[in-house]
Amino acid sequence: MLCRMATTGTPAEPLSIGDVAERTGLSVHALRFYEREGLLVGPVRRTSGGRRRYTSLDVDWLLICVKLRESGMPLADLRQFAELVRHGPGNEAERLHLLEAHRQRVDAQIQALEECRSVITWKVGVYADHLARGKTDGLWDATT
Fold first, then answer.
1. What is the pTM of this model?
2. Mind giving me the DSSP string for 18-86?
């Protein structure tokens, strides 16, 4: 399934840090952290009063970052990915390598979780069977 991110603002419509927090699910603190850590692909513009102003493109990037972090991408890899994107065309193979390596880690995590689910499902069946028969003895045996 393709995960497509969409925002409602236009690139020219400035968004406050609160607007971006609401649209991305990140806290204001996390947004400032992302900026400090170099995880954004462009500089965040500021008003004459120093308030951050984001674009819908910033929101789109942050939504991708959220999914990469939720799936376990290390900050160092996300920082490197952002840096490659900031440098522009010519490093697409490096970006692809980072994403493929991350996808392999995610695939391994999914496989491990599926194995865990299988064991849990089996053990749920053991308990359900024992309870349906009205016999709860033997549930702690190592072989059940």
1. 0.80
2. HHHHHHH---HHHHHHHHHTT-SSSPPEE-TT--EEB-HHHHHHHHHHHHHHHTT--HHHHHHHHHHHH
